[in-house]
Amino acid sequence: MQTDFKKRISQSIAFWTFRILSLIVMGVLFSILGFIFVKGIGVVNWDFITQMPEDGMTKGGIYPAIIGTLCLISGSMLFAFPIGVMSGIYIYEYTKDSWYRKFVQLMTSNLAGVPSIVFGLFGMALFVNKLGFGDSILAGSLTLGLLALPVVIRTTEEALKAIDKSYREASYALGGTKLQTIRRVTLPMALPNIITGLILSIGRVSGETAPILFTVAAYFLPKLPTSIFDQVMALPYHLYVISTSGTNINESRGMAYGTAVVLILIVLILNIIANLIRRFLSKKYKTN
Amino acid sequence: MQIKAAFDDAAFINLIKPLHLSVIKKIINKTIEGLLMLSSTITTLTVLLIVLFLFKEGLSVFKESPLEGENVIVLSNQNKITHLSSIDIKKIFDQETTNWKLIGGANDSILLFTINDLSNYFSEEELGPNFEFLPQKMDSLIEANPGMIAIFSKKYLDKNHKSKIASIDNISPKSFLLGKEWFPTASPAVQLGVLPLILGTLYVSIVAILIALPIGLATAIYIAEVANPRIRAIYKPVIELLAGIPSVVYGFFGLIVIVPLIQKIFDLPVGETGLAGAIILAIMALPTIITVTEDALRNTPRSMKEASLALGATQWQTIYKVVIPYSASGISAAAILGIGRAIGETMAVLMVTGNAAVMPHSLLEPLRTIPATIAAELGEAPANGIHYKALFGLGCILFIITMFINIWVEAISKKRIKH
Amino acid sequence: MYKIESKNVNLHYGTFHALKGINMSIEKNTVTALIGPSGCGKSTFLRLFNRMNDLIDGVKIEGECLIDGKDIYSKSIKIDELRKRVGMVFQKPNPFPKTIFENVAYGLRVNGITHKNFIEERVEICLKQAALWDEVKDKLKKSAMALSGGQQQRLCIARALAIEPSVLLMDEPASALDPISTAKIEELIYQLKELYTIIIVTHNMQQAGRVSDSTAFFYLGELVEFDSTKKIFTNPSEVRTQNYITGRFG
Asked: Cβ contacts (< 8 Å) between C113 and chain B: which residues?
């Protein structure tokens, strides 16, 4: 039949278009990663990640930037994780459907949408200038922590929401208080998802540049920090400066590729860990 | 029987007394609950603090005079003009405006005078060994020349001056938002017009979405409706990974691959252009668009799809007649979120767009976005100066745009839930 | 004295009038079945007695609910004390993702009991009462999630028994189970009434007929009829009850 034929032709044209476009997407994405990997993987070796940068950052390694990024990750998580998880618990388990809940939810969703450079502005105005922390690990960590906060809160809320309410009721029916129910039933059940969210937010924090531009990042500082009031180098900022404003952009290209590879590897590894945890723990808690 | 026996046992242990939580435990519980509440309050306060700080600093730019330092602009009393705007001053001192007639004064050519021109008019003896006669001399010079406009530091102004001080507008919201020139370090008067930056931001973001939306939509449809589960299992984690790659890495890639490519293809003097920014932003917005769209497509009830298929529609007809209309609001949410992400993106754009703060005419010229401006200039702007405040003003604009987008998306998804 | 009484109880969810002036008195050590079409208020009524409705936003309750002659909604009653005296079994088996042992011990632990031997003893007794002991005694340290649906539901019953309630509320306890597991649960209910006063919500007429001593028929938030099960099923005094039982609606 004529129309049947037409129908089938238009379907296969449409589907092939989709297939090809999606292959292009994958192709572009893989070529970005592949290009950087091919160019940069030769640079990455033990010396590269354990040596100080030398010769106007055209030689040597990126050790202080790695340490700096680790400091910032741990600092920001130390701040964002407890506050985020506790806020998530409070918002989901304690506030009823009231104006307070709506208000807090509006605030967190707004916080999630704020561009990272605005966090940088705020961090500079409050932590660096007003509170007088100066450019320091403390100021940078707090700024990055604020950025990660809405992610952690939302993950916690979603994880709690996913737990059937009959588990809570069963605990209450046995005389458990709200807090006991949270501590012994809901939180353990929500933990795998919360941890997954936490790991993904570490990924985000480790790659952010804009918030640390004016709060902590040092252009070139070939020594390790000794206190939380020190400046540090950081991987994403390092990549930015050696690829745009170094004295010797061409000679530091190799370093830039290497740094980009390290950044991608960090995100890749965190993603794999998060996926493994999700798979492992969701099996464990799978109900019939 | 076993159950019977169990009942008999139960009789013995009826001695479980209701055990009250001890006072200490109660205090601990209350403390923990207090901490939980405190955390959520901190979160809320943070947002309010961000708003407070941004707007306090940002709005204070409107209290500033565009004149740098402690300068004053002095005119002769014979000059009809009493009042000058920042753009007038710039044009006068750039010698673009050379006659008072052009800005509403008498037909008289403009004579510039700065402190460097002193030696053209006076000898050192006339000014005295410690320049003690300088204020008085300058005053009479200006008063004698109706076409003269002079700028100098307040301390050289004669206490009994006869000439008049021109009143200068503070930076006005209108000139800030609609001004076409962004020269925050210009002398003698800074130019703080953010229109080129706003347009630059919108230009790049919208072009990015125009590139990313069709491709993202096609990919999402492919993943959600066409691809078999094995292919989907490859696509999903890769897209998740891409969402996590830091923006500097995309910026770096843009800088070393896309920028030279554009330069070669279009034969341009520089490859750092709006187009390069739009392409990188499109790539970065893809994961957001694909994930949100795919979720929306998947929410189409199975029964609805089956009903369409059962009536003899092909899969493709079902997709565009049932699935896409049903998830339209989700798809528009994806587009808006994508724009939001593009507007706020800083580093990648900073690295590839060339950062020329001029009114954008074509995508093949360098342009500059709001976030990139903040990132590029905040480091050099002295704290609490007018430039610093202006950058916070830019932050406010950015905050308002993204908040608006957020509320918009939220409204769309609320509608979706009801529907 | 009746074990459980409700006197002119009204309940509103926001603007929705869910229970309309319910009066009911339940004897000690009996099984009472609550029947009626979906949304008739039977589950809501059941949940009055361990104050589970308190968890829902916008609920308003008027009237008196008495257990052992005491108003459980009065200020002097501590809610967790009440819930310890009133056990509850839910529609879908919902063991916690913990070991079998810890599931049964949960109620004891949250009530501050730490004595190890006592807990062990209690877990064994409750599993025996719930007719599950023989099936699980060798795998007490295994996850409760590995049990079958019917076993999980009996575990939930054992969990409810551990805190020695005197009243047991069951919200369609067998609706998610296969016929064999259902039969086991029904047998268990029949035995448990020697020690507990049981209220059971069910959709299944035969089940109500098999396990209960008296039956209450709810319709649109009203208690239409409450009488001995035998009377309700053979000679109801209300036409609406008659129609429901013979399957004219619902």
From this structure: 16, 19
Give burial (CB, 10 Å; 0-12/13-18/19+) of B348: buried
**Cβ of B272 under 8 Å from any chain A Cβ?**
no
* Minimum distance, in Å, between the CA of residue A286 and any CA atom of chain C: 7
- In angstroms, rounded to a whole number, what is the distance separating the alpha carbons of residues C61 and C56? 12
- Does the residue C31 lie in any domain? yes
Q: Is residue B324 part of a domain?
A: yes
B184 within domain boundaries: no
**Residue C12 DSSP SS3:** strand
Closest chain C C-alpha to A94 CA, distance in angstroms = 11
Instruction: Report DSSP letters for C122-142, one per residue.
Output: HHHHHHHHTT-HHHHTT-TTS
Neighbours of chain A (3+ CB pairs under 8 A): B, C
The ipTM of this complex is: 0.89
Asked if residue B175 belongs to a domain, the reply is no
Question: What is the spatial distance between Cα B230 and Cα A114, in angstroms, rounded to a whole number?
Answer: 36
CA distance A37 to A210: 24
Is residue C51 one of the residues assigned to a domain? Answer: yes
DSSP state of B169: P
Does the pLDDT of residue A287 top 60, yes or no? no
In this predicted structure, the answer to whether residue B4 has a pLDDT above a threshold of 60 is no
Which pLDDT band, with edges at 50, 70 and 90, does B14 fall under? very low
Chain A residues in contact with C93 (beta carbon < 8 A): 288
Out of C50, C57, C148, name the one closest to residue A173 (CB). Answer: C50
**Phi then psi dihedrals of residue B242, to 5 deg:** -65, -35
**Residue of C29, C161, C191 to mutate, interface with B, max B Cβ within 10 Å:** C191
Q: Three-class SS of residue C34?
A: strand
How does residue C197 score in pLDDT terms, banded at 50, 70 and 90? very high
Domain-embedded: residue C119: yes
Residue B286, domain CATH: 1.10.3720.10
Question: Does the beta-carbon distance from A240 to B351 stay under 8 Å?
Answer: yes
Contact status of A243 with chain B (Cβ, < 8 Å): yes
Q: Each residue of B49-94: pLDDT tens digit?
A: 888 888 998 898 888 887 776 788 888 887 877 778 777 887 887 7
Instruction: Find the closest chain B residue to A243 by CA distance.
Output: B252
Contact flag C125-B18 (C-beta cutoff 8 Å):
no
Backbone phi and psi for residue C80, each to the nearest 5 degrees, phi listed first: -75, -25
State whether B200 and B319 are in the same domain: yes
| Pairing mode, strands B83-84 and B167-168 | parallel
Is the sign of the CA dihedral C22, C23, C28, C30 positive or negative? negative
Give chain C's domain count.
1
Residue A236 and residue A73 in contact, taking contact as beta carbons nearer than 8 Å: no
Stated as kind and residue range, the H or E segment containing B108 is none
Task: Name the CATH superfamily for A47-284.
Answer: MetI-like (1.10.3720.10)
Q: Which of A10-19, A238-247, B248-257, C177-186 has the highest mean pLDDT?
A: B248-257
Phi, psi of C194, rounded to the nearest 5 degrees: -60, -30
B392 CB neighbours in chain A (<8 A) are 121, 125
Q: Please tell me which chains touch B, using 3 or more CB pairs under 8 Å as the contact test.
A: A, C
Query: How many Cα neighbours within 13 Å face the side chain of B313?
Result: 17
Distance CA B165, CA B154 (A): 10
Q: Where are the alpha helices (DSSP H) in chain A?
A: 2-40, 46-50, 63-89, 99-113, 116-123, 137-161, 165-173, 178-181, 187-207, 235-244, 253-284
Per-residue tokens: B51: 């708003």
Minimum mean pLDDT range among A32-36, B32-36, B148-152, C162-166: B148-152
User: Closest approach of chain C CAs to the CA of B22, in angstroms?
Assistant: 9
Flag whether C250 is in a domain: no
Alpha-carbon gap: B329 to the closest alpha carbon of chain C (Å): 30
